[in-house]
C-alpha cells in the first residue's frame, strides 16, 4: 500500500495544526469555578456527546421477561440502578460554553421509566418495528439523558423493557454491566464467551513495537470507502437480530479450527456482510469493509465496569468480505486479529478523542467527524451472563443490545446471554433496507462452519 494513501488531506493537516496550537490554552487549568455539585463532562465522555450534532447518539437495548407491572419495574430500577449510579440523576448543562454534569433538582423517576400503553406490540416483527422507530428519537435534553419504556402486554405472559441511554452516560460495557448487576442473583463470574477487548501489560506493549508503530501511522488513515458509506446518512435506522447460536457449539468450532470464539463470531459477521453485498450487487465495488471495534481499557477487576462512564479505545479492522471461501475467511480473520493483540492503537484513539473533545466546540466537532469517517461500521462484542437470570423474580428470557446509529451507517453488536450468542444489527435505511438478512446470514454461516467442524472431527 502506498504511503500517500495513509496521509491526511490538507484540510485534516490544517485542523491538526489548529488543534495543537489551541490545546495548551484549552487544557490549561485556569477555568472559571462551577456551581456546587456541577462538574465538567470529561473528554472520554464528551466526545460522544459532541458527535450527535446531527443525529442523536443513543444506545438502545431491550429485555424480554415474565410479565411485570410498571410499579414493579420502577421499584427495581430505582433500587438497583438509580440509587447506585449517581450519573442517572445528572443532566447536561452549559457553563461558559462547555457541557457540564449538573444534579437534576427536579428528578422524577416517572419521567424516565414509563409504560407505552399505545405501543400495540405483540410479536417479534412488531417489536423490531418499534425498536427501529425509537432508535434515533432524541431524549429530553432538560433531563438526565436516559429512559426505559415498558411494554407490559407484549404477550399474555411476557413484557418488554426498552432501555435507551445517550452515549455520554456510559459505553456499552458499563451499561450492560449495570443491567446485569441489577438481576436478582449475579452468577459467579466466568470467562466472557465473547471478548470486547482488554488492556495489555506494559511489557507486552513494548514487545509489540512493530505493530504499535503501524498503529500510530494508522491514525492517519483516510476516510473509508465502501458501498455502505454514503455521503450522508438519513438517520432512520432499522433494527434486526438473529436467533441464538449455542455457546457450546461455538466452542466446538473454535477448538476444531484452532482459533478463538471471537474469530468465529467475526468470520460469521463477515459472511453476513458479504452475503448482503452479493445480494445487492455491491460486492464488486469493494474488497474490504473497515470496522471500528471498541476495546475496553478498564482493569481486569469486575468492579472496574460498575460505574457508568466511557472508557474504551478503538481499533480498526478490515472485514475480508472479498474472500469467498469460508475457511480461508476464518483464517484471515484469525491472522488479522492476532496482529492486533497488545496493540497501542486503542490507547492512542482514546487519547486523541479525549484531547479533541476538550478543544473549542467549533473545532472539536469537525475533527471528531473526521475521525469517525475512518470506518464504515461499528462492531462490538458485549460480554453478558452465561446463566439465565431473573429481575425482581421475573425470569429474563432474552437481552439485546444496539450501538448508536448516526455517524456510521451500520452497527453490529454481538451479545452473550444464557449459554447463547446473538447478532444485533442496526442499519441506516440509506445503505441497508434489510438488516435482518445480515443477521440471518450470521446464523447460516455459523451452521455451515459447525457442519465443517463436525465433518473434520469425524475423520
UniProtKB/TrEMBL annotation:
Gene Ontology, cellular component aspect: plasma membrane
O-acyltransferase WSD1 C-terminal domain mapped to chain residues: 310-449
GO molecular function, one term: long-chain-alcohol O-fatty-acyltransferase activity
Pfam families named in the record: WS_DGAT_C, WS_DGAT_cat
GO biological process, one term: triglyceride biosynthetic process
Gene3D superfamilies, sorted: Chloramphenicol acetyltransferase-like domain
Pathway membership: Glycerolipid metabolism; triacylglycerol biosynthesis; Lipid metabolism
Domain O-acyltransferase WSD1-like N-terminal intervals: 82-205
Key words, A-Z: Acyltransferase, Transferase
Catalytic reaction annotation: an acyl-CoA + a 1,2-diacyl-sn-glycerol = a triacyl-sn-glycerol + CoA; a long chain fatty alcohol + a fatty acyl-CoA = a long-chain alcohol wax ester + CoA
Taxonomic superkingdom: Eukaryota
Signal peptide: none
InterPro entries the UniProt entry points to: CAT-like_dom_sf, O-acyltransferase_WSD1-like, O-acyltransferase_WSD1_C, O-acyltransferase_WSD1_N
Similarity-based family: In the N-terminal section; belongs to the long-chain O-acyltransferase family.
Family annotation (PANTHER family): O-ACYLTRANSFERASE (WSD1-LIKE) FAMILY PROTEIN, WAX ESTER SYNTHASE_DIACYLGLYCEROL ACYLTRANSFERASE 4-RELATED
Protein name according to UniProt: Uncharacterized protein
Organism: Saprolegnia parasitica (strain CBS 223.65)
